[in-house]
Amino acid sequence: METRHDVIVVGGGLVGASCALALARAGLDTVLVEGQAPCGVPPGEAGWDSRIYAISPGSVRFLEALGVWARLPAQRLQAVSAMHIRGDDGRSFLHFSAYEAGVAALAVIVESRALSRALWQALPGCPQVVCHCPARPSRLAVEADWARLFLDDGRVLAAKLIVGADGARSWVRQQAGLRFRDKDYRQMGVVANFACEKPHGGIARQWFRSDGILAWLPLPGNHLSMVWSTDTAHAAKLLALPPGELAARVAEVSDVVGRLTCITPAAAFPLHLIQVDTVVAPRLALIGDAAHQVHPLAGQGVNLGFGDAEVLTRELSRRGVRDCGELALLRRYERARKEDVLAMQFVTDALKELFAHPHPVVGVLRNLGLSATQRAGFLKQALVRHALGTS
Predict the structure, then answer these.
(1) Domain presence at residue 58
(2) What pLDDT score was predicted for residue 50?
């Protein structure tokens, strides 16, 4: 039995759920298909989530407009007041501050589980979105006027547009035959959370090191979250360390927060650069990691995804009486997102490769560049505007 809709969003992660909610609030009859039931554990009842995100002010505004941000527990949010970056020569640095940028915060740190729960709490309150969860697609068929999604339980969903929000290994992208390039960095992002002996002051810190890129992100109270982007061999050693030894290793870079105590087990995820030749096709659009993946050193991956969801909704809202799956309309979305995505992919990839290069001359130049950016006010302002989502 077939049901017909305006849009089907495949993938109910943070980006997919936000996109389904935004499209439905814009008046489109929307279906969200997700293979796994969302986590029902309230934030704070299962300790700290090891996966956290730095949500930009632009993304905060998007989530506020959807009625999602207000559902987040305030005691689990942490504003980032400043960002301190250090080069690998021990002297070069780059500092950003919310005060200099004229904003309340450079970003807000949010746990993945808390944000997912807030999104899924908001979905039932929007009558124009129907959730099929858990449900898994088995086949996609694109025709002239409709796209059909066949679920593995026998149901058939038809829509004018399919939105692939199903992650870096996107099933929708594969079914549509969209070409992409996957650059394996041969690195892992090792994550863990720690209690701090001294207050962190809401400052995020990052060190470019010979063994990778180490970032500390502030969490509420005297807590911080670590992301250590490093080669797979070093990542394996970090994962094998007892909690006390891992905390001591992480604390070696700075004594600014005193002694660290590990409060969550270390985990890791592989790092890739994914570039898709085109993120739209007849009756199909990709968003989030299905459309692009970047190195986490700038912490902008999920913000790019929220930007995709917001711009796609905006373009479809302007369609008037036009078919929302029309390729010319979807091209407007692709063009509107291309510059931001390419710029972020270029910057993160270039920085990763630059600081991984072993030649001493390259080392001198990269650290000089870091210090020069600190002194060049106009360049710092441009970088801040882009990160804030105001460029």
Answers:
(1) yes
(2) 87
